[in-house]
Amino acid sequence: MKKTIIIAEAGVNHNGNYDLALRMVDEAKRAGADYVKFQTAKPELVISTFAPKAEYQKQTTGEAESQLEMCKAIHLPLTDYKPLKEYCDKVGIGFMSTPFDLVSIDVLEPLDMDYYKIPSGEITNLPYLRKIASKGRKVIISTGMSELNEIEDALKVLEAGGLKRSDIIVLHCNTEYPTPMRDVNLRAMLEIRDRLGVEVGYSDHTKGIEVPVAAVALGATVIEKHFTLDKTMEGPDHKASLEPDELKAMVDAIRNVEVAVGDGHKHVSDSERPNIIVARKSIVAARDIKKGEVLTEENITVKRPGNGVSPMLWDSVLGTVAVRDFQYDELIEIE
Q1: Scanning 24, 82, 274, 284, which has its CA 20 to 30 A from the CA of 335?
Q2: Class at the top of the CATH hierarchy for domain 268-335
Q3: Positive or negative CA dihedral for 168, 174, 176, 180?
Q4: Cα dihedral 85, 102, 119, 164 sign
Q5: For 193-252, how does the pLDDT look when each residue is reduced to its tens digit (9 = 90+)?
């Protein structure tokens, strides 16, 4: 099975503190994630002064400040992303950041990221999609709040801009923080794959780790999950995020599932092969049998171990004669 790309989503859980962002890089690396991902924005280019907060944002940060004021307080300056990327290179973890505006796309371009990550909120942003496509890089796109036709429209824009569909990974996603289990609809990921002909993954906002692990078992090639240094910190996303030890547990579980999924062909594994003799059965003598005696349902039976004549040959053995004397429970031999 292809190795799942695991993205540890730091997002804005550094609360605008560069030192905390560095600590999050270290924790993502320790957990075994392939990438640590941030969010890059000039908030005033993304959010109008009239934009309300989401309900989950009101619950986590209150209603006194606007969405714009909240985001200004928790985003890093654009100048921080280059040294942040350099630090990721130093410690040996992939760097990603989601641009939320056209200026941020250009800020991130010189950082030579493996993928541009398009967030769910930009899937209907035509100028944004065109600019992402113009960069010619592979793309991962989240699809929260989207219908299938909207995803298809976004893919067509990216393709018109020069990208191939094989350059795009589409993440099934639900943007409620945290996502109720009843709304996860994980099998929608398979519909996206089969109907749109794309590689798929899953961006998770549920509590816990079981849903992203299940997504890998279903065929997700990318998993994205928010994490934080401390769920009790102030900010909109901390409560729906994993703490470092939980992130590591998720990564370990995903790696185990990758191995467990296997090649899809039913066969005897090397580990269980020795148990064939122990657990299967053979035809044995139900009592002492003399040489030349006809073998019948009264003098033979089936018992462990499984290294003798298979019970699948039962009908063929009945009516033959004993090739030698057999003691009770001894494996029957046939010519």
Answers
A1: 274
A2: alpha beta
A3: negative
A4: negative
A5: 999 999 999 999 999 999 999 999 999 999 999 999 999 998 888 888 999 999 999 999
Residue tagged 């250009």 (tokens)? 106
Name the nearest CA neighbour of 172 among 153, 145, 197. Answer: 145
Residue type, 275: N
Query: Sorting pLDDT into bands at 50, 70 and 90, what band is 61?
Result: confident
In 230-252, which positions are buried (b, 16+ CB within 10 angstroms) versus exposed (e)?
ebeeebbbbbbbbbbebbbbbbe
**3-state SS of 232-279?**
CCCCCCHHHCECHHHHHHHHHHHHHHHHHHCCCCCCCCCCCCCHHHHH
With tokens 């006809």, the residue in question is: 294
68: burial class by Cβ within 10 Å (0-12, 13-18, 19+)? middle
CATH topology (fold) of 5-261: TIM Barrel (3.20.20)
